[in-house]
């Protein structure tokens, strides 16, 4: 067959190794006249096309099986890794429930795709893409890649021995040494090379070829022509030049602002310096008194110890004399008792003593049993049992004890449950009372309504950053609900609750506050705003119903900003009822007195309503707005009284339950005692009988008058000795105590070093002594410690307050100078960020106020008329002319479209329509306003007008040069002239009249949409791939996936005629149903097949194909190369 279209590169062969389910080596010849890929659903048609895309498309833009995704609207899960691995199905792991892929190639493996292009004049290039994954690798980042261009038609099966262990780039390059083959691991280099060799003009044409593969994904003419036909406009370059050249003017303006900023930055310095000096003097006096305090206290203590030592010495002398006297008396009594005992023993031969001992033992037995009986009787108290000392009564008592013991556990469990419940209630009541008291204590020491934890957080922040609390206010502290609108206070408090707790930070303090907050765990939700230092109050709306008219604002530098903020963010109209609420315009925000909020209507037509009646947001205690907290204090006082009553009541109930538990335990112990006792343990009758008998015998022995007298004398001697022992023991203890106390006093006195009692200045000593005696008439050993601690605490507090004031003033000075030097580091030669340099800073302030501001202003105005305005003027011209230039370029497309009928006796034409949005129109209006007219001669008097012109330019150029994402989006909108127009297709009859108009494919049927897209695609491809005067494009292969699947045969033939008339080589993937229609346009067809089978006992899958040439001969190629399973 004669070669068609000589000189045009057309795809001649596709080779695959290990691509998806094409496992092994496959070679697919592609006929030059046209080629058709067909097969059943899921057979692998798109797999072949994705292989071609893996070579021809930048991998960052690669979109596998794009036609299917356009149809389904979701990703199909295909990736370069899945194709290399040969993923063919997904299964659920029964153990883990995870979804995993089944792969044909799990170990180390590789894939090769080669595309051979032939221009019909003996020039042939083979494009090769090699991909390798090692074992265990499964991400795109793991893929090793090599791309090459080899002269001639090369069989890539020769490369497989070089890939079994690794991707050996050196050996592959050596294999083609001596040829013009090139290899690279960088796709962009590879693409630049093959575009030059194949005649693809640019990357836009390359991408258009890829998008053509899934033509259905082009949803509108706008998308096609904006993204794939028109080049990026020069407006971006012109804007960049204007941004760069604006810098000189900006610097001149900033010089003027810089001098003013320096003056403003140093202005507070004199006041900070005066405050620091006063605080340092107060701190010095407090330090001197703290230093003298220990010495003064030691003097007072030494004097008190001396007095106590003298008193205790005298008392000890008296006690020792008394003890000596009692010792002599004790010896005398001991002698008397011994003599009386000897007389008794002589007269009775010890019989009396023996009887007395036996009687004593019996009495002990009687006493013991009577005591046991008494314990039993006490244990049975309240049991209403009169058991006496009979065996029968005692048995009844034990039976009753057993019953009580059996009931113990049940009764105890019931009381324990009650006790636990009351404990929880008591703890909650106590915690509630503590919280109220803490809040009340906090409120009593301040005027703010803000939560205690936020105030403590601010206090900590201010202490560490040397700012005062008034410098860092909460928003709620700077406003009040007007007394005339108290009925609206509950609603206003709810609406402003979150904003009221916002900490307001001056812009100058922003960096220090950010650093402190970032480095601390604030243990709460802290919201703060960096507020401009100078903000004028907003011009309030005249509608008296607006929320802002129900507020009063405190005098403060940030009050203007707060009023602005509330006017913008809380612009509620306060209405009386629902009828008035509904009468508001849809764009107006409103609220009723019952708290129902209505917000402006959204873009989707819905209207949002809110009503927040949560308990936690009810009542005065919830309030945050207000410069005073008296109402909240009164409420908390009432709540404290109620909470205290609840605490007391709960505690009394808990104590009563505990008392019942104690009584129950006591009763159990008494029952246990009764059950552990036998009747013999309490029966004293036998011992009483024996004692009576012994006493009668002793009575008979003592019936002699002489014996009775001797015994009586002995008893008197024993009593006198016992009394002497007791008196001597007490006297001894008293003397020992006095001696110990005296020793301790002398030790304490000896510990006071005499040298530590002097060296004080009389004035300081007198001040300390007055502080010690301020609340007591006399200093003693017992109160000197407390007074010392109190005075020390007082002095430390004064020192701390003075130190805090001095530190804050010093910090303010350092911070001010530090901020100054950070912004103006060149001033650091004569100035440091230290308090001692305050004088130098003040002198610098005076110098700056006398600086040559007029000269700086004149320099700024001289630069105002420069190239920046010229560049912006040029940019404005480009924007105005963009539509006409695009219309001129579209004429080439229209000439291409006019060469073939769109419908019988009708052609298609593309017109350009203005599609500028409000942002573009506003930008062009601002651009014209900033550049129209020349600025008058710069003079000092013209400074205000010059600044206004500068800000107009700065507003435009700052946003054009911004790197913020939202500004980047805006920049693209206003500068991308491709999006300032839209494209409309007009179907013309032979007379040039419009028959149909197509703005996009959304309103068309599937076939109509494909028809419109393919005609436009043909024109776009012709425009991108061929020179203006060239008969044919140098590169001719166009691939279409799912081609014409919804078009009728007539349209299919028409579209194919369009493509072929432009000289394109069509490679089509399409269902079986279109084979008859497309067969005249192709010279070869493959039928792709897919089979799931079992190989080596494992489930597997394989793809293959059958080639049908122009003569109708069928050849099957489904073999696998021996190197395909290199793992």
TrEMBL record:
<feature type="compositionally biased region" description="Basic and acidic residues">
    <location>
        <begin position="595"/>
        <end position="610"/>
    </location>
</feature>
<dbReference type="Pfam" id="PF13555">
    <property type="entry name" value="AAA_29"/>
</dbReference>
<feature type="coiled-coil region">
    <location>
        <begin position="398"/>
        <end position="432"/>
    </location>
</feature>
<dbReference type="GO" id="GO:0006302">
    <property type="term" value="P:double-strand break repair"/>
</dbReference>
<dbReference type="InterPro" id="IPR027417">
    <property type="entry name" value="P-loop_NTPase"/>
</dbReference>
<feature type="region of interest" description="Disordered">
    <location>
        <begin position="588"/>
        <end position="610"/>
    </location>
</feature>
<feature type="coiled-coil region">
    <location>
        <begin position="302"/>
        <end position="365"/>
    </location>
</feature>
<dbReference type="Pfam" id="PF13558">
    <property type="entry name" value="SbcC_Walker_B"/>
</dbReference>
<keyword id="KW-0742">SOS response</keyword>
<keyword id="KW-0175">Coiled coil</keyword>
<keyword id="KW-0234">DNA repair</keyword>
<dbReference type="GO" id="GO:0000731">
    <property type="term" value="P:DNA synthesis involved in DNA repair"/>
</dbReference>
<dbReference type="GO" id="GO:0009432">
    <property type="term" value="P:SOS response"/>
</dbReference>
<protein>
    <submittedName>
        <fullName>AAA family ATPase</fullName>
    </submittedName>
</protein>
<keyword id="KW-0227">DNA damage</keyword>
<feature type="coiled-coil region">
    <location>
        <begin position="633"/>
        <end position="704"/>
    </location>
</feature>
């Amino acid at each position: 067959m004669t070669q068609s279209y000589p000189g045009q590169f057309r795809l001649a062969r596709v080779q695959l190794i290990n691509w998806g389910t094409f496992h092994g080596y496959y070679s697919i010849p592609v006929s030059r006249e046209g080629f058709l890929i067909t097969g059943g659903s899921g057979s692998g048609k798109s797999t072949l096309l994705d292989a071609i895309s893996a070579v021809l498309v930048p991998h960052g833009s690669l979109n596998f099986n794009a036609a299917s995704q356009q149809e389904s609207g979701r990703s199909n899960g295909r990736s370069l890794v899945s194709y290399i691995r040969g993923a063919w199905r997904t299964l659920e792991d029964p153990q883990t429930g995870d979804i995993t892929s089944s792969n044909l190639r799990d170990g180390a493996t590789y894939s090769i795709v080669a595309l051979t292009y032939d221009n019909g004049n003996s020039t042939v290039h083979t494009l090769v893409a090699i991909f390798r994954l090692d074992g265990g690798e499964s991400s795109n980042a793991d893929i090793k890649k090599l791309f090459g261009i080899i002269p001639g038609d090369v069989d890539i099966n020769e490369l497989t021995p070089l890939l079994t262990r690794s991707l050996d780039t050196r050996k592959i390059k050596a294999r083609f040494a001596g040829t013009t083959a090139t290899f690279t691991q960088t796709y962009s280099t590879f693409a630049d090379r093959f575009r030059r060799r194949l005649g693809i003009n640019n990357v836009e044409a390359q991408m258009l070829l890829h998008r053509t593969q899934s033509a259905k994904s082009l949803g509108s003419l706008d998308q096609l022509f904006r993204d794939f036909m028109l080049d990026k406009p020069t407006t971006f370059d012109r804007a960049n030049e204007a941004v760069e050249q604006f810098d000189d003017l900006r610097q001149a303006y900033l010089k003027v602002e810089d001098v003013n900023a320096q003056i403003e930055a140093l202005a507070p310095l004199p006041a900070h310096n005066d405050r620091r000096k006063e605080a340092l003097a107060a701190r010095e006096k407090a330090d001197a008194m703290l230093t003298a305090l220990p010495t003064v206290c030691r003097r007072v203590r030494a004097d008190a110890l001396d007095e106590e030592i003298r008193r205790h010495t005298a008392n000890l002398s008296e006690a020792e004399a008394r003890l000596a006297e009692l010792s002599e008396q004790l010896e005398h009594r001991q002698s008397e008792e011994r003599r009386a005992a000897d007389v008794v023993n002589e007269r009775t031969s010890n019989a009396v003593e023996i009887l007395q001992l036996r009687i004593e033992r019996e009495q002990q037995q009687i006493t013991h049993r009577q005591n046991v009986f008494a314990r039993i009787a006490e244990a049975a108290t309240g049991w209403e049992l009169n058991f006496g000392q009979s065996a029968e009564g005692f048995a009844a008592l034990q039976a009753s004890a057993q019953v009580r013991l059996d009931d113990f556990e049940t009764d105890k469990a019931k009381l324990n449950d009650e006790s636990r419940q009351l404990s929880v209630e008591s703890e909650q009541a106590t915690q509630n009372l503590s919280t109220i008291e803490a809040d009340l204590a906090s409120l009593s020491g301040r005027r703010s309504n803000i939560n205690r934890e936020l105030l403590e957080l601010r206090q900590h922040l201010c202490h560490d950053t040397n700012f005062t609390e008034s410098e860092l206010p909460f928003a709620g502290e700077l406003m009040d609900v007007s007394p005339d609108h108290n009925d609206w206070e509950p609603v206003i408090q709810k609406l402003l609750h979150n904003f009221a707790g916002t900490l307001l930070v001056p812009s100058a303090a922003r960096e220090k506050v950010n650093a402190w907050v970032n480095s601390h765990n604030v243990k709460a939700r802290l919201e703060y705003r960096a507020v401009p230092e100078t903000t004028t109050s907003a011009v309030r709306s005249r509608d008296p119903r607006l929320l802002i008219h129900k507020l009063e604002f405190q005098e403060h530098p940030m009050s203007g900003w707060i009023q602005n903020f509330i006017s913008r963010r809380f612009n509620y109209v306060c209405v009386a009822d629902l009828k008035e609420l509904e009468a508001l315009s849809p764009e107006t925000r409103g609220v009723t007195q019952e708290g129902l909020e209505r917000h402006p209507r959204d873009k989707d037509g819905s209207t949002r309503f809110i009503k927040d009646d949560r308990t936690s947001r009810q009542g005065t205690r919830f309030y945050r707005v207000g410069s005073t907290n008296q109402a909240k204090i009164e409420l908390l006082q009432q709540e404290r009284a109620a909470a205290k009553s609840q605490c007391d009541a709960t505690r009394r109930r808990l104590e009563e339950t505990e008392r019942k538990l104690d009584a129950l335990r006591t009763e159990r112990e008494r029952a246990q005692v009764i059950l552990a006792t036998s009747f013999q343990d309490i029966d004293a009758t036998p011992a009483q009988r024996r004692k009576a008998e012994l006493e009668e015998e002793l009575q008979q022995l003592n019936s002699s008058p002489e014996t009775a007298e001797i015994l009586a004398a002995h008893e008197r001697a024993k009593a006198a000795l016992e009394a002497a022992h007791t008196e001597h023991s007490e006297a001894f203890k008293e003397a020992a105590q006095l001696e110990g106390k005296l020793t301790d006093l002398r030790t304490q006195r000896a510990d006071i070093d005499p040298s530590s009692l002097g060296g004080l200045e009389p004035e300081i000593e007198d001040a300390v002594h007055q502080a010690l005696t301020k609340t007591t008439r006399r200093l003693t050993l017992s109160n000197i410690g407390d007074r010392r601690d109190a005075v020390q605490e007082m002095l430390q507090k004064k020192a701390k307050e003075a130190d805090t004031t001095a530190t804050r003033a010093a910090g303010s000075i350092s911070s001010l100078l530090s901020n100054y030097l950070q912004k103006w580091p060149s001033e650091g030669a004569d100035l440091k960020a230290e308090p001692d340099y305050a004088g130098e800073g003040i002198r610098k302030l005076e110098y700056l106020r006398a600086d040559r501001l007029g000269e700086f202003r004149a320099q700024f105005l001289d630069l105002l008329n420069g190239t920046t305005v010229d560049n912006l003027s040029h940019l404005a011209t480009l924007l105005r002319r963009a539509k006409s230039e695009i219309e001129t370029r579209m004429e080439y497309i229209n000439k291409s479209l006019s060469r073939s009928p769109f419908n019988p006796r009708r052609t298609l034409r593309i017109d350009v329509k203005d599609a500028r949005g409000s942002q573009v129109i506003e930008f062009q209006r601002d651009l014209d306003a900033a550049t129209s007219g020349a600025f008058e001669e710069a003079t000092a008097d013209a400074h205000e007008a010059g600044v206004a012109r500068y800000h107009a330019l700065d507003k435009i150029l700052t946003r054009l040069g911004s790197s913020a994402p939202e500004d980047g989006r805006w920049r693209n909108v206003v500068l991308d002239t491709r999006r300032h127009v839209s494209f409309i297709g007009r179907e013309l009859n032979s007379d040039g009249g419009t028959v149909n108009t197509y703005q996009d494919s959304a309103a068309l049927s599937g076939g109509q949409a494909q028809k419109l897209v393919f005609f436009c695609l043909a024109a776009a491809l012709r425009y991108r791939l061929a020179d203006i005067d060239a008969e044919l494009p140098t590169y001719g292969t166009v691939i279409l996936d799912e081609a014409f699947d919804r078009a009728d045969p007539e349209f299919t033939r028409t579209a194919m005629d369009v493509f072929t008339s432009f000289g394109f080589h069509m490679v089509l993937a399409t269902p079986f149903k279109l084979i008859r229609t497309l067969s005249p346009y192709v010279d070869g067809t493959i039928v792709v097949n897919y089979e799931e089978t079992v190989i080596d006992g494992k489930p597997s899958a394989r793809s293959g194909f059958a080639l049908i040439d122009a003569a109708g001969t069928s050849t099957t190629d489904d073999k696998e190369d021996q190197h395909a399973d290199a793992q």
